[in-house]
Each structure stands twice: as C-alpha cells, then as structure tokens.
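Appendix B, record 7
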Amino acid sequence: MNKISGIRACVFDAYGTLFDFASVLGRCHEVPEAQRGALSTLWRDKQLQYTWLRTLQGRYADFWQVTGEALEYALESVGLTVPGLHARLMALYLRLPVFPEVPAVLRELREAGFVTAVLSNGTPVMLSAALEAAGIGELLDAVLSADAVRQFKTHPDVYRFALDSLGVPAEAVCFQSSNAWDAYAASAFGMHVVWCNRYGQRPERLPGAPEREVRTLAELPGLLNPLTAPPDGRPGTLSK
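Structure tokens (predicted):
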C-alpha cells in the first residue's frame, strides 16, 4: 500500500481520538456500574447532537456549556439525581486520560519534522486543562479550538481555521479522528484523512472518504512518507 505523501502537518481531533472520554464514568463510583454504559453513550450522543443543532440554528454556545447541558439531559434520562454528581463528572471531563499510544506517536511525528496540532470543538480552557493533566502539551505545536470561529465541526469554517492557523494547504495536512462523521467531513473539505476507528464503526454514508482506516494511532507514522526535506522551522504562525 502506498504511503501518504506531501504531508507537513498532522492534525488530531481531541475527544475520542487523543483523549478517552469514555473513561469518565469508570472513574466515578457514584454512578452504579449497571448505568455507566448507558449514561456515557447518552451523554456523548446528546453532546454531539447539540453541537450540530446549534450550528444549524445559528445559536452558538461553547463546548463547555453544550457538554454540561448534555450531561443534565443524560442524568435526568437515566434517573440519577445524586447531589453534586453533575459537577463531579464535569470536573473529571477536564482530566481525561490519553489513549496509551498517544505520547509516543506525537513524539515520533515531531522528531520526524511534522507539525503536530489539535483541532477540537473543546474550548481553550477545556483543552488546556486536559493537555496539562495528560502531560502532552509539549508534544503539540498548536492547539486549535473551534470556539475561535464560533462554529462546531463539521462546519467548513472549523477546518479552514486550522489551515489558516498553521499556514499550510489542505493537501499538506493529515487529519486524524476517531469520529467517523469528523473524518469524512475533513476528507470532503480536502484534507488527507486517517480514520482511527477505535470502536469498529461501520463506514458513513457521507461525502468524503478517509484514505486509511486504523484501529489505533500507533499505525499512523508508518502510513506517512517522510518529509522530502527538513522544514526551515515549522510552517505558519503556530499558537498554543
């Protein structure tokens, strides 16, 4: 299989791709074990629905608010009314662990000369807290929040914001997401895409088509052709 060529920047989705959002419920013993799976799934599903619906309505609220409102809905739906539980779960969301392979992969990519960046719906505060807790901030050249354009993925403005921030064209970006809808949208936008299909999802029936599908990010470095020449510094004006 041919490797992906011409890449200068590797851009990652955050939640579900770098950070294990499903771990929140496993770390909160106040939620009965029998309800953890249903609560986690409903919280995530409603969180994403709210981002898409707010984007369609033109009624933006940042990802922290959306996440909190989705959790309120999920807790009420499963009948959990434990005092303070909402606040404790939200606090845990700020300290999500990364998947085991993530630090080594980011380090390998940077050592090979690729720019590494996050492009996420998460607010700057959310992303900063998660990166600090995980200890991987120094492995990223840029941390980009959709909050800057007051839209959520899959709006094209979010992907365009990444290109403008990094100073690279779409064809020089390899975008990684575990969310199929995100992977397909980035591909339709014009980026190279590696879909990190951690959960064995079926392919989407949407515009775009990821070039590669992997089960973990550990496979990513082997899919990329090396840079043809060491870059003179990292491209664009990068901001953390």
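Remarks on this record: Residues 170 and 191 are 5 Å apart (CA to CA). Residues 235-240 have pLDDT under 50 and may be disordered.
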